[in-house]
Each structure stands twice: as C-alpha cells, then as structure tokens.
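Researcher: Let's run the pair from yesterday's discussion. Sequence first, then tokens, for each.
Model: Starting with the first of the pair.
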Amino acid sequence: MRVLLTRPAGQAEELGAVLSAHGIEWLGEPLLRIVPVPWDPGVLAGKAALLVTSANASRELLRVPGVRRDLPTFAVGPATAEPLQAAGFSNVQVAGGTAVSLIAYVRRHADPGAGRFLHLSGFDISLDLGAGLAPAGFTVDRVVVYRAVAVERMNAGVMREIAHARFDAALFLSARTAAVFCSLVIAAGLVEASSRMTAVAISCKVAEVLRPVGFRKIVVAASPSLDGVRDAILRVTAKDA
C-alpha cells in the first residue's frame, strides 16, 4: 500500500510516521505553501474570545510570546484545536469541523454581550464568521495570520507515479488542497490515472471538491481530525490488503 500525503511541508511527518508504523509506504507532496503574514499581537488585547478556523492559524497564534492560555477559544474542529490543547490552552471549545458548524456552536455557547471576538484566519476564507454571527449580536474582528499559496505544478516524479498507478490512495485535509490537486491533475491530463486511486478526505466538503477527478472511491473520515483521517486510511488499507 502506497499513500500520497498532500499536506504542507513539515505537516505530513506526524501522520506519515503512523502510516510507516503500520507498514504503509507514503510520499509527501505539498500542494500549498504556508506563508506567515506579519500581524500585530496587540489585537488580542481586550478580546472576549478567539475564533480559529485552521491548524495553521493555531500554530501562528502559538508563535506569540506569552499568549494567554486561558482565553476562551472556539476552534472549527478537532484538527484546529489539537495544537492549542497540546500547548496548554485550557478553554478550547470544538465545533463540528465546518465554518457553518462553528457559527452555530458560538451562537449556542457564547455570550454576544461579553465583548468583541477575534477571528484568526488565513487570507482565503470560505465563510465570513463576522457576517454569520452579526445577526445574533456578535461583533467579530478578523486578522489574517498566514497565506496558503498554491504550487503551480506537482513534482514531475509524483506525476509519473500517478500516471503509472503507483499510489493506492491520496489524502486531503482541506478543500483548498483538494481544489489545487484537481486543477493540476486536469491540466496534466491525469484524470484517468487518478481514477485508479482512492481519495481520503477529512470532511464531506473536501470530498465534494474532489469529485471532478473521478477517484475510484472517496472515503470521508468519521471525524474531522488527524485521528479520524488516520483511521480512515487504515480502514482503506485493511480492505485493500
């Protein structure tokens, strides 16, 4: 079994180590390059709570010296919450893995009268949390802490491996990564070759973005977390063994 991991550089190794421990060969091919964006940590002062919609945003928050670990923080899903919880954030609440679920969760569990919220995000967002929460009386400021820059093409060796059906599965943890993969595969004329692979997606939203490629099968993780993705890959490999 051979798996293509599409996570950004430096983020595939943890999952790759788990796969290696189960005898699964993997190759990392980052389709997005995460570029930190300078921002003023002073915007954290006086905020009632934080909204975090990606693990990359969580990691950028952790770069702030002396950042408060007890500040109420609402994470879009488990994968976003994990870096904060591991770093000792004591008040992290986790939504269902989508921006829509995060808006619904905040409406149910937070007090709009507590003060201004701060959304730490990438440059590209799928949904404006401030606009979604405003009708419920919340005021949300947004600060961009990173950009996800798409690669212009995949490594030539990886494209050859796809063309010769040398990957059994490919992993996708974001809709943006899935979209980049689809566009590159279509441009390279590798749609038919990709149809011999199984795609493992972290969520139904990501799975939907992958459909234009026509994978042999798309498997959605039971939970939008690294653990959920790991379990999904292991299920796929067990069935194909």
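Model: Moving on to the second of the pair.
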Amino acid sequence: MTRFPEAAQPVRGGFVLWDVAERRPLKSIPFQFNPDTLTRTLQPQGAGDESGDRLEVLRLKGPPHESYKFDAEFDATDYPDRARDGLLPVLSALEVTMYPRRTDLLAERTLAEQGAIEIAPLEAPLLVLVLGKKRVMPVRITEFSVTEDMFDAALNPVRAKVSVGVRVLTVDDVGYAHKGGELYLGHHREKEGFASRVINPIADVGLTTL
C-alpha cells in the first residue's frame, strides 16, 4: 500500500492564541489526534444575489463566508504521568477562548457599581486555527460541544471528543491592519497559489471551443 512520506510523523494541527495588544503568541492548544474528517463550507458573497440584476451578477463584494467543522479526540490515558486532572486542563483551555476574562467581568461590575459605563470591552486574544503550515486561519468558534466518555476515580474526564465549528475571520471582520487580517490575507494567498497550478485546456472537459 502506498503511503504519504509524512505518514510516519504527521504534523499536529490545533489552535494558537495570539495576544493582539502585545503582538505575540500566548499559547498553543494542539490536537492530540488530528481529525479523521473535516467539513469545509464556503458561502460566496455576490453583489448581485438577487435574480435579474444583470449588472452585478458576476461581481463579488467580498470574501466568502468560510466555515470548518471537525471532531478532535483527546485521551489522557496515553499520558498517565500528566493526567492528574484528566482532560480538564486541555478542555478548559479550549472553552475559555469563548469566555470574557474573569478580571474583565469583575472590572465591569466595579464600573457598574460606580455608575460608570464601559465604552467597549477589551479585545479578547485572537484564535488561530492551524491545519499544517499552509492552512493558518484566524477564526471564531461558532459551535462547541464535548462528549466525555471515560472518567478516572475522581470523576475527571480522561477520554473525550470535542466537536468544533469555526468561521474564518476575513479582512471585512477585522480590517487589514489587524493581525487577523494579515493572517487571512496569507490564507487567501495560499489558496490562490494552489489554484494557479491548475491550468488545463478546455479539451480536458470534452470541448474544442466555447
């Protein structure tokens, strides 16, 4: 059976948290096991989405809405020396990306008690999905569910499957100067680079003229 050269030592995907204010990575949350399957959905943003608009039908008003869905499995029994709390650390690391910081909540309560109004909440760290070096995308989690199916004596989960849905953030979401915009443009550039390799004559689809 033919195998990919990388099959012996596969690259591990995962998430990276980027501190926008400090412009540095905070931590990575790698997948213990890479997903077996991954579903990608793209929804184009056409300027002429309404039928009959002949002037706009071929125009694109922005990047498509791109989303990913996958399952990530974790098993603490593979690392018994680091499994004092089971999978609670890694699961919590994923979950807190969707929470405002506790210190921000307390500061907000203090302001409310003083009769002050916070103009805008502090910006949370940027979440980056890494699926190999050629697919690095700024994302926002849109779906998240955990199935815990094995526990230790202290009821800590030691085996779990995390089902995740994310939406890729584009320059429309964060702007061009933001780190997320920079990463998105890199993601876009990689796609265009791969697409440029496909240059086939129309004869390949059974046509001699069009």
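Researcher: Give me one sentence on the second I can quote.
Model: Helices lie at 88-95, 102-113, 171-174, 179-195.
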